[in-house]
Amino acid sequence: AMALCLKQVFNKDKTFRPRKKFEPGTQRFELYKKAQASLKSGLDLKAVVQLPPGENINDWIAVHVVDFFNRINLIYGTMSEYCTEKSCPIMSGGLKYEYRWQDDNKYKKPTKLSAPKYMCMLMDWIEMLINNEDIFPTRIGVPFPKQFQQVCTKILTRLFRVFVHVYIHHFDSIINMGAEAHVNTCYKHFYYFIREFSLIDHRELEPL
């Protein structure tokens, strides 16, 4: 079923962004491989997210932020045809939660957007940040900026909203596509990771 999901995603150019890749031979590529290997080993997810001995916490967070961006982007891409201006005129998580978009460019004030428009703005914004060498440096010896973890908190908080929207408004589609186990695993992994490093304010977690 997952192969089918992936096929559906790759057929939809507009929603699927090219994956951000780690350069082979770099420290972060090695860390990414280590993280993937422990995921596949069937270890408890709570153990998988822990910082490996001797590794730099910012490198570890950077690897996971990029990986979660890739995976959540893929999850949303698979079901984006069910999330339209008509079905989701507001970016929400049930009746109690409405998410407004704000950035430093076009939307200086928190603005109501439809869910698909919000998702599009969100993915573009994250892509811009993770490709910015001043924020996510990839060259060896180049230090992370002081505000690195704050930026990651903002990225992860907004990515969490994708799960909220998908679970509350599109769960039947996930089940119909046979992607439920895949989405649940990704969510658990994400949840244990943000809890391990206290990266999201617990109030943001209330909708799920």
Task: Provide structural commentary.
The protein is an all-alpha fold. It contains 7 helices and 2 strands. A hairpin with a 3-residue loop joins strand 1 and strand 2 (97-98). The model is unreliable at 1-15 (pLDDT under 50).
What does the average pLDDT come to? 87
Q: Which strand order does the major sheet show? A: 1-2
CATH topology of the domain at 65-205: Butyryl-CoA Dehydrogenase, subunit A, domain 3
Please write the CATH class name of the domain at 65-205. Mainly Alpha
As a percent range, the share of helical residues equals 40-55%
Structural class comes to mainly alpha
How would you characterize the largest beta sheet? 2 strands, antiparallel
> Which regions have little confidence, pLDDT < 50, spanning 5+ residues?
1-15
Order of helices and strands: HHHHEEHHH
Give me the CATH superfamily of the domain at 65-205.
MOB kinase activator
In total, the number of strands is 2
CATH architecture of the domain at 65-205: Up-down Bundle
In percent, how much strand structure appears in the residues?
under 5%
Number of helices, where a helix is a run of at least 4 consecutive DSSP H or I residues: 7
Cα shape:
globular
What are the defining features of this structure?
Butyryl-CoA Dehydrogenase, subunit A, domain 3; 7 helices; globular
